Amino acid sequence: MPQVSVVVPIYQVEAWLPRCLESIAAQTFRDFECILVDDGSPDGCGALCDGWSSRDARFSVIHKQNGGLSSARNAGLAAAASEWVVFCDSDDALHPQLLELALAIQKAAPPHTLVCWQYGPPGTSSSPLQAQAEPQTAGQLFESGNFPSACSKLWNRALLASLGLQFNEAVRWAEDLDFTTRYLLALLSKTGKAEFLLIPHVLYFYQQRSGNLTTSYFPEKLECEFAALPSLLELFQTLCGTDPVLLAPFCRHELFVLLGRLSDCVRLESSISARARWQKVRRCLALPCMREFLTLCHRCRAWPALNFCARHGLAHLCLFGVRNCYKPWYTKLVRARLFVQNKFYWGWQAVKGLFARGKG
Q: Does 212 fall in a domain?
């Protein structure tokens, strides 16, 4: 039985698939199986998969009707026979040492540890990398963007099988975030703790191409982000307790993402009227999970100006939420941590506190 299964969901990526499969075949760790899931691809991907399986016994193919990314990953997960699982999207590529480093670090770590790696644009390192990893908090992983992705982690297949964990096929967006959150909640329930190790190298190379889900807008993105929020709140408050230092990175990143989604709704959802878009934004801001999240952000002093806008004024939401439209100057504000707004907001809070104490 191989030690690790690499699951590759495939749909309409004929131009990128050879590079992906070559990167998997070139792994320095040889004891793996690669499960190619042809999700009813209408191009030549099916034939490419069959060719690889005939040339390399480590590669096997599942041909199925189109059911989406989550359905394809679930089919590959069900066919996996190894102790560990790695997911790789079919238009991306792996560093030659990814499996070697991840398994070496996992072997030396406690069973409740989740080993992660960094991902970035196409490239590779010519020099051999050392098997080393840095402890991370969940908040640090979340803020760096490594937390949600299913393709940046080594998954324990036995735990997934024992708990019946699969990707939610009804979720079109943020399915990785949903899967990661449920996995960690299950790990906490089983072991009572969860720790994270991050390999400080880019080992996963993504292909940012136009037309994929990441670069396109559709209305379900907003609903999916808010549907994942209650579980995220439960997970991070379980992992971090009430410690504002540990919670702040999570709050900063998630607040920025949620306000960006609301801004996208106002700007880009042309299928409904402007009034309907604002009503949709108001409903999202009034959700109990959002109110709870904003309270948590307030306690952690995470993006006070953004938090203030979300709590008290929709007109300001356009200004602070539109990160795509006004990216150059908005990036400068982000890097400066909205210094002026922070000082003004917390200065005003201090003044109110003085008046409150004077009345008491």
A: no
